[in-house]
Structures are given as structure tokens and as C-alpha cells.
Amino acid sequence: MLILLAFIIVFHITSAALLFISTIDNAWWVGKDFSTDVWQICTNITNCTVINENMAEYQSIQAVQAAMILSTVFCCVAFLVFILQLFRLKQGERFVLTSIIQLLSCLCVMIAASIYTDRHEELHEAVEYLQLNVASGQYGYSFILAWIAFAFTLISGVMYLILRKRK
Fold it and tell me: pTM of the full predicted structure?
């Protein structure tokens, strides 16, 4: 049982790390001389334009920002609740709340990645003034990490439900 708990803790920390990296790093959509994420658009490496609320075209990107932040927060809260429940609750009652919070994290990252998948063309149209050929880009590793984090948080949420029945 101790090995299983250690595996789950490592798996949960890996999920949180993936969420942090995919939320923060500037590689959701990359091209030859630009990269974009949910926070900014960078040409070369040094010239970055921050996406803010004054840009009406970015409402869907703001939804992605909010969902990614929520998923990261839920994942961290789920880990703290897991640690508290590990020592406080009776056997058989453990980890239901942790599982619910982790599945909420999974839902939020799925919503964020789905919105970005559907609406990243709006970002392309909005940055034409930067003289970039953003249509020639491709999804970056942060976007892929977001989908991997979705799978990890889903698996860990289900593992917590299964683990609650273990002795």
C-alpha cells in the first residue's frame, strides 16, 4: 500500500508540474519566427505583446487563461486535500473529496485546451498587424502538455476513487 501511495503522490506532482508548464510557457502555437501562448505573442524571442482585456478579439483566450489557472489551482488543492485526508479520515472514507477536486481540474484543463483548439484562428486574425504568418505555425509543446495533463488528472482522479476502497 505504501508503494501505491508513493506512486500516486509522484503521479499527482507530475500532473501539477505539467499544468504549471503548459500554463506558463510560451509555446501553445509556434512558427518560424514567433510563438504564442495564452498570455502573450512573441516575435523572435525579445519582442512580446501581452494579451490583455483591451483586445476584444481575445475573449476566448481569456477563457483559456481562466480555465488553465483554475485547473492548476484545483490540482494543487487536490494534493493538499489528499495529504490531509490521508492522515485524518478513516479507511474507506478517504479520497472522495480529493477525487472530485482532481476531476474538476481535469474538466478545466479539457475546457481550456478544447477552447484553444476551436478558437486559435481568432488569435491568428487578431495578430495580422504584427506582420506574422501565424497560419503557417503549428501546435507547440505546451499545448500538447495541456492535453497530457488532462489525461494525467483524469487518471489520477479515477485512481483516488479506486484507492478509497483499498485497505
Answer: 0.85
